[in-house]
Amino acid sequence: MSMSKTLEGKVAFIQGGSRGIGAATAKRLAKEGAAVVLTYVSSAAGANEVVQAIEAAGGRAIAIKADSSDEQAIRGAIRQTVEVFGRLDILVNNAGVLAVAPIEDFSIEDLDRTLAVNVRSVVIASQEAARVMGEGGRIITIGSTNAERMPFAGGSVYAMSKAAVVGFTKGLARDLGPRGITVNNVQPGPVDTDMNPDQGDFATSLKQLMALPRYGQAEEIASFVAYLAGPEAGYITGANLMIDGGFSA
Question: Any idea which residues carry the catalytic annotation?
Answer without folding.
Answer: 158
